[in-house]
Design brief:
single chain, mainly alpha, elongated, binds fe (ii) ion
């Protein structure tokens, strides 16, 4: 499987998680509930971003170069990570819920840029064979074995 197809599949699962969290966030009665929800979302997003940071982006550094879209994507990964830290640090319930909503908005925009720009550039720059090879790195990282 091509790495970009695997990443697209992960986006699909994460979109469903975003929808669920947005629909249920208003039910939270305490800051700790919002923080626990953010921890689950954080774990899911960190695992996804790590695959892009460790497998896709280094291959693109060698082809399209580290500036432009790749610099934007890396910056947004860091921004999302920073926002999770802010939520974990505490504060008011309403503030934390607003931060989770902003984080989900940013993540959706980030995914859209990857889908519309970065993955298309990856296809052009790396081609089917290299993306298939990188896909093995994805299956190893996710412990999914494809024959
Ligand atoms: Fe990303
Ligand atoms: Fe992504």
């Amino acid at each position: 499987m091509k790495l970009t197809d695997a990443l697209l599949g992960e986006h699909g699962v994460l979109y469903a998680l975003f929808d669920h969290i947005e629909a249920t966030l208003a039910d939270a009665k305490a800051l700790a509930e919002v923080q626990r929800t953010a921890e689950i979302l954080g774990a899911a997003l960190a695992g996804h971003a790590a695959i892009e940071d460790d497998i896709l982006f280094p291959a693109l550094d060698q082809t399209i170069g580290p500036d432009g879209p790749l610099a934007v994507m890396r910056h947004e990964h860091e921004e999302v990570h920073r926002m999770f830290g802010e939520i974990a640090a505490g504060g008011e319930l309403a503030e934390a819920a607003t931060l989770v909503r902003s984080l989900i908005d940013l993540a959706r925009e980030h995914f859209a840029k990857e889908e519309q720009v970065l993955f298309t550039m990856s296809q052009q720059a790396l081609g089917d064979d290299k993306l298939e090879e990188l896909g093995h790195g994805w299956s190893k990282a996710r412990r999914v074995y494809i024959s």
